[in-house]
Amino acid sequence: YLAGALMLVAFARFLMICRWTLLIRGAGTPIRFKSAAWIFLPTSFVGGFMPAGLGGGVVADWTLWRRASER
Known about the structure:
single chain; 79% helix
């Protein structure tokens, strides 16, 4: 059961990263899947500890801003 649960969680995270990548690209910011995963996974972890997901959103916004300003 544990292996099945871990596979489902991994698949759910994969789908969330795909959705997040599509939303960012739709907003006009080019991003690779690997970069989106690199930003999404830590921010979802931080968001689990901060009230109302505030921490994850702030970290994601800051990281995207920093990457966009490097170009």
